[in-house]
Amino acid sequence: MALSFSVINTRMTPVWDFGWFDLTRFKVDGPATERQDCYHVLAEFLRAPISQRSFCDPGQWGESIQRHGPFLCERLAVMWFRPITTEQLADRIRAALDDPEFTVPPNNEQRQPVEGWAAAVKARGDDAFALEAPDLAEIKVDWAFVWIVYHEFLSISSDREELTIGVIGYD
């Protein structure tokens, strides 16, 4: 029996002038034996139609657009999601928000949802991952240049009953 996923909640908050933080929590349903391995949960999620979504022009999860952010779904690989510690998650988020390329950094109110999520991941003891896709044109949609910034992180709860995706983007 395959795992199934349903959206618990999703929200997008502004960061910078045209930047955003998109956070979506998913319920993971299926036998506990199928949920033991994080990479199996992640692979099942990426195979499921619900994993399709454009973050640049956010629609509903699973809208049959054949892409996940700037990536073609057929090319997206589970091994691109590298395990990271919760400290590394916080560091990577901080680095993205403090990027010196931005003349006006996000204010404390804009940072709070992003940094708060990283703190919650650590407090719960979730497994954290960072999407580190190869920089190849053939894995991206034609208009991938729209994403000036795209950092995707994922967490899976220790009981493997919840998967969360957090994306920091700028378009």
Number of helices: 3
Mean pLDDT: 89
N-to-C SSE string, H for helix and E for strand: EEHEEEHHEEE
Radius of gyration: 15 Å
Number of strands: 8
User: Runs with pLDDT <50, length 5+?
Assistant: none
Report the sheet-strand fraction: 25-35%
Largest sheet: 6 strands, antiparallel
Query: What structural category characterises the helix and strand content?
Result: alpha+beta
Q: Helical content, roughly?
A: 10-25%
Termini separation (Å)? 39 Å
- Overall geometric form: globular
Strand numbers in spatial order across the main sheet: 1-2-8-7-6-5
Summarize the structure.
The chain has 171 residues and is of the alpha+beta class. It has helices at residues 38-47, 86-97, 108-124; strands at 4-15, 19-29, 67-68, 71-72, 81-84, 127-131, 149-156, 162-170. The protein has a six-stranded antiparallel beta sheet, with helices on both faces. A two-stranded antiparallel ribbon has the order 3-4.
Give a verbal description of the structure.
The chain is an alpha+beta fold and 171 residues long. Helix content is 23%, strand content 31%. The chain is built from three helices and eight strands. The chain has helices at 38-47, 86-97, 108-124; strands spanning 4-15, 19-29, 67-68, 71-72, 81-84, 127-131, 149-156, 162-170. The strands form two sheets. Strands 1-2-8-7-6-5 form a six-stranded antiparallel sheet, with helices on both faces. A two-stranded antiparallel ribbon has the order 3-4. A hairpin with a 5-residue loop joins strand 7 (149-156) and strand 8. Helix 2 runs antiparallel to helix 3 (108-124). The chain is globular, with a radius of gyration of 15 Å. It starts with a strand and ends with a strand.
